[in-house]
Amino acid sequence: MSNGDWYCKNCGYVDGRNVTFSETCGTCRVPVVWHDANEKSALAEANETIAQLQARLHEVSEIYTGSDGFIPATAPEAYCLRIMYQMYRAAVGPQEGE
Ligand SMILES: [Zn+2]
Q1: CB atoms closer than 10 angstroms to residue 16
Q2: Measured by CB atoms within 10 angstroms of the end CB, which terminus of the chain is less buried, N or C?
Q3: How many whole angstroms separate alpha carbon 17 and alpha carbon 26?
């Protein structure tokens, strides 16, 4: 398993054999940076977590949307609906024009 890869901002990940002695890209001559393999997996892990959280928040908004058309008949029902709306708003965040 590789310990990491050289990264060129123009070419993406480049083979170590295409990196010059002064640590520039052999193709376009811009400086390259070393990306540690563990660093990349931490980034991939963070992206995965973000995607999972986005999916959960979307699910929350779908659940609230499912209550559309429900007319509360009692004060406790109205209270529960208001709480659900507040949770929905917290999940979707501020919308344009707010
Ligand atoms: Zn390059």
Answers
A1: 12
A2: N
A3: 8
CA of 15 to the centre of ligand 1 (A): 10
What are the pLDDT digits (tens) for 56-80?
999 999 999 998 999 999 999 999 9
Q: pTM for the whole thing?
A: 0.54
Could you tell me the distance, in angstroms and rounded to a whole number, from the CA of residue 13 to the centre of ligand 1? 9
Residue 45 CB-half CA count within 13 A: 6
Distance (angstroms) between ligand 1 centre and the Cα of 98 equals: 44
The whole-angstrom separation of Cα 45 and Cα 69 is: 39
Question: Rounded to an integer, what distance in angstroms lies between the CA atom of residue 16 and that of residue 6?
Answer: 6
